[in-house]
Amino acid sequence: MSDLSNFLAEQYEAELKLFHTSLDEVPADSFETATLSHAPAWHALHVADWLRLVVLDDRTPNYHHLGWETVEGVKKLGTQPAPMNEDAGKVAVLARLDEIGAQAVAYLRGMTESDLLGMTFSPSAPSGERPRLLALGMHLRHVGYHRGQVQLLKKVQS
Prior knowledge:
Layout: H1 3-24, H2 40-55, H3 72-75, H4 90-109, H5 113-116, E1 119-121, E2 129-131, H6 132-157
Antiparallel strand pairs: 1-2
């Protein structure tokens, strides 16, 4: 474990806790309801899928909540059924997010500086990959963005 990997793990842990809290405040009867663009359940599964892909480098072809499913390089990642769908219920979806989040934080804590300097898959990068450290920083901000989306949904729903 390096100081940098520990710092990243702490930042992810804090942001994921804030994201979970925001999602938990959504009433169960509207957790699966798409308001504006996506349902809170989708936001949770979206972040969980990106945690699997960016942090855990999991290439299991069962991604269905990335938001890039029509991009050629991503299509091969969704050939199997999703591990969970938005209609699984609030408790199950939040448990999935927490499980993947805990795996990601543990994985980050174990990364070496050499691991952090490698490359990782990125469908938005022209080459299809980007430096891992840059991708982790971008993804961490991405979680915060989706937390803001959930906060906005809560205001619209009330």
